[in-house]
């Protein structure tokens, strides 16, 4: 087994290689505006660090969000392209699940990432491997009663201490955590969701109202 894991659902552009026993190389850079510029060099870098070529990869692990439209598209299109070119499976993993796994908390807690527009992407967890609620996007004030008193991780939780007073790191997801989680699930024979993006809301760019399509006669 050689898994190539990547995630671009948060400001972190993160990549890792997992050989079935552990993570053998990883890279993470935080830059919300350069996902497309940073992802492929990061993949080259982890392959070089491991002394391997892309054709040695047997599976792709892709963070499916939730996250912004542009960032998610970069990572998922790259994963799909590699999967098709190499003829290998692409396993979708919820980005919030990767953060929860990295947090390694035993009791109930919350994962929240920054959704911008003064909102967070969030979900509740029973433990680091068990999600209790579907991912959602909400204003922190609107979910305060649901998360009251619970520990929380993620950039969204750290941004709103009034709603998440027990917030702490990790701030962003790491591909190393995604890879470890995916390897564990594969070993247990678990199935993965299709690598389809969890957008949860419409993209910022919208077609103007009363837009007229002009076609040549």
Automatic annotation (TrEMBL):
Pfam family, one: TsaD
Broad class of enzyme this protein falls into: transferase
Name this protein carries in UniProt: tRNA (Adenosine(37)-N6)-threonylcarbamoyltransferase complex dimerization subunit type 1 TsaB
MF (Gene Ontology): tRNA N(6)-L-threonylcarbamoyladenine synthase activity
Species the sequence originates in: Streptomyces violaceus (Streptomyces venezuelae)
UniProt-listed SUPFAM superfamilies: Actin-like ATPase domain
This protein's UniProt keywords: Acyltransferase, Transferase
EC identifiers of the protein: 2.3.1.234
Domain Gcp-like: 31-154
InterPro entries: ATPase_NBD, Gcp-like_dom, T6A_TsaB
CDD domains the UniProt entry points to: ASKHA_NBD_TsaB
Domain of life: Bacteria
């Amino acid at each position: 087994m050689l898994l190539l894991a990547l995630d671009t659902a948060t400001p972190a552009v993160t990549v890792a290689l997992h050989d079935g026993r552990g993570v053998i190389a990883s890279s993470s850079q935080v830059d919300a505006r350069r996902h497309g510029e940073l992802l492929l060099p990061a993949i080259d870098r982890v392959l070089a660090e491991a002394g391997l070529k892309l054709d040695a990869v047997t599976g792709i692990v892709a963070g499916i969000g939730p996250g912004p439209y542009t960032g998610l598209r970069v990572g998922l299109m790259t994963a799909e392209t590699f999967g098709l070119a190499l003829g290998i499976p692409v396993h979708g993993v919820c980005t919030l699940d990767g953060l929860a796994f990295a947090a390694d908390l035993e009791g109930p807690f919350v994962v929240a990432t920054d959704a911008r527009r003064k909102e967070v992407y969030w979900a509740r967890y029973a433990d680091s491997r068990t999600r209790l609620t579907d991912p959602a996007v909400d204003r922190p004030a609107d979910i305060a009663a649901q998360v009251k008193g619970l520990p929380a991780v993620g950039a969204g939780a750290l941004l709103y201490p009034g709603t998440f007073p027990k917030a702490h790191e990790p701030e962003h997801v790491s591909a190393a955590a995604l890879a470890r989680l995916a390897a564990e699930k594969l070993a247990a024979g678990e199935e993965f969701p299709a690598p389809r993006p969890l957008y949860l809301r419409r993209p910022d760019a919208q077609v103007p109202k009363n837009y007229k399509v002009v076609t040549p006669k």
